Amino acid sequence: MSGKKLKAVEHPPVSARRQHKADAKAAATHPPSRQRPLTRIQKEKQDIILEAALDVFSMHGFRGSTIDQIAEVAGMSKPNLLYYFPRKEEIHRRLIAALLDTWLAPLRDFDENGDPFTEIRSYIRRKLEMARDFPRESRLFANEMLQGAPRITEMIEIDLKALVDEKAKILLTWMDQGRLARTDPYHLIFSIWATTQHYADFDVQVRAVLGKGRNGEGRFEDAARYLEQLFMHGLSPKPRVNGSA
Fold this sequence. Notes:
The chain is mainly alpha-helical. It folds into 2 domains: 14-86, Arc Repressor Mutant, subunit A; 95-235, Tetracycline Repressor, domain 2, CATH 1.10.357. The chain has 11 helices and no strands. The longest helix is centred in the N-terminal third of the chain and has 25 residues, at 40-64. The chain is elongated.
């Protein structure tokens, strides 16, 4: 499942200026992103802007990105874009909120009633699928982390932490039951994040080092098999020796 591409575009016709001024004036008091329900066309415009912003932010980071760049990629004038999103921060916040919701879905689905190895194997594969299908989103999140997460501190300190705490308890329960080798559950989760998201955040490096013949879509299946072997071996309960507890 490959990523989606964006289109580039034309300036609004001169005949539309008068209407655009009226729209811009209305935006000061009733921006569509904040007030009345969106029309179909307004929703389409917002989606175009968000898709363009994802391209720009994932490439340049929040600080290196400008409204002008986003407007150019979206194929609309800067005033028209500002009608839908008055500030760059608002666009970024919308993208990050949607990203976190998508990004955390596989961890939310981690089932305490399931088989530990099946659940961990499924989590690894779903994270690799996301690295394959959503590389821009992964780089957007990585850029935000590298800048100290100033715009999503509350999300990661409250929502993300609560979710990881919950899943760490499940892992500890499995360890207490002897179904997994004992290890630090938090660092286990961090390790899965690091080894799977690497394939999105360092995609250019991965493809360059693998070289032709190994750098196609099959590299994700190769990675899945390797990571499954790595984690399954490391997490397999060790047999007791000489009757030790």
